[in-house]
Amino acid sequence: MSPNYNIKEVILWIKSELKDYYPQTEIDSFVSLIFNALLNYSRTTLLLNHQQILSSNTINEIDHIVSELKLNKPIQYILGKTEFFNLPFHVSPSVLIPRPETEELVDLIIKENRIGYHQILDIGTGSGIIAIALAKNMPGSMVTAIDISNDALTITRENCKLNNIENIQILNHDILNPKNSLENTFDIIVSNPPYVTEKEKALMHPNVLEYEPSIALFVSDNDPLIFYRYIIEFALLHLNSGGKIYFEINELFGNELALLLEEKNFSEIVLKKDINNKNRMLRALFK
């Protein structure tokens, strides 16, 4: 793009450049995100300032963002940030991009545990979205966030600072390694572990397959519940009596996972559907 374009002209250029790559509604969302990230402008501010001339630096940044979008790179990774549960978060290709379904899981935990202070463990924390959202909305509770990826934990620490969160302990821990055990006990254990099977890859968008970390997404077709089995065994030793376990799950295995929890003497097992009417959350009580 040439310099001396105003906001209105730049928006029209963005839409023209991306029209063969994305639906119009998604392009409109990109426009809002781009101007919010670069100029801190809301949609209303954009409308009120549509004749504003943009600097050459801003033009160059927008040109770069559009080029990246044409390569199917997620806008969150391009901008390096996103929002989850009305909180700001840094993201990078080392961590998953937050999904609305995970917000529903966080909302469920908060609504069911409003009373008292809780010891909470988030297994496979990634960017820390679940741990930080719970720490922010359940004041007085103490949250432990664990992940096998040091790169992900670096992002978690950045997000704790970004959201002024101090009541979180961040640890490198491999939940699949029984010898690498935590000694603490908890009132709530939550996890959104890898649960997409290899055979489901064909159904996924290229921007997920090419850019998001496969280690945080996929499990073997032969053992799709591997993380849940290990987490449940961990919970048997580390959940306090009357404690609860919460999972985000693959809709295909909800009933199978509920049966597994029942066999391990968990009670009050509830499968909950997400906004798309898919079995996405599971909660159980430890007797």
Q: What number of structural domains do the residues give?
A: 2
Give the ordered list of helices and strands: HHHHHEEHEHEHEEEHEHEHEE
Question: What is the number of strand segments?
Answer: 11
User: Which strand-content bin applies to the residues?
Assistant: 15-25%
CATH superfamily of the largest domain: Vaccinia Virus protein VP39
CATH architecture of the largest domain: 3-Layer(aba) Sandwich
Q: Tell me the major beta sheet.
A: 7 strands, mixed
Number of helices: 11
CATH topology of the largest domain: Rossmann fold
- What structural category do the secondary elements indicate? alpha/beta
The shape is: elongated
Task: Report the radius of gyration as a whole number of Å.
Answer: 21 Å
Major sheet: arrangement of strands:
5-4-3-6-9-11-10
- Please identify the top-level CATH class of the largest domain: Alpha Beta
Global mean pLDDT: 94
Helix content: 40-55%
Through-space gap between termini: 64 Å
Low-confidence stretches: none
What does the model show?
It is a single chain. Helices cover 41% and strands 21% of the residues. The protein has helices spanning 7-18, 24-39, 43-48, 56-70, 75-79, 100-112, 129-137, 150-162, 206-211, 226-238, 254-263, and strands spanning 81-84, 87-90, 119-123, 142-147, 168-172, 186-191, 196-197, 218-219, 239-248, 266-273, 279-286. The N and C termini lie far apart (64 Å). The protein folds into two domains: 7-71; 98-286, Rossmann fold. The protein is built from eleven helices and eleven strands. The chain is α/β, with parallel strands linked by helices. The chain has a seven-stranded mixed sheet with strand order 5-4-3-6-9-11-10, sandwiched between helices. Strands 1-2 form a two-stranded antiparallel ribbon. The model has no long low-confidence stretch (mean pLDDT 94). Helix 1 packs across helix 2.
